[in-house]
Amino acid sequence: xxxxxxxxxxxxxxxxxxxxxxxxxxxxxxxxxxxxxxxxxxxxxxxxxxxxxxxxxxxxxxxxxxxxxxxxxxxxxxxxxxxxxxxxxxxxxxxxxxxxx
Length: 101
Description:
By secondary structure, this protein is α+β, with helices and mostly antiparallel strands. It has one helix at residues 79-100, and strands spanning 12-16, 21-25, 33-38, 42-47, 62-67, 71-75.
């Protein structure tokens, strides 16, 4: 779901363990970068069980990525994809803290 204009837009996400980022683009060709979420900024990743995402096209497939300054609502194409993305993002964000020690 968009940050300033609260409407749902399709985005292509790229997880980069080396750069410790989750980048998102307009499409899968990755030509126009829309934003970057740094692992160190991620506070929580959770299933949107309260259905707080406004007008989600599919609330059952919606999850949240909470950072220091924004709450991202993300809708996966399937339940399996949602589980995988949530696991990968949590693992990446937690993996970041291993480098701090």
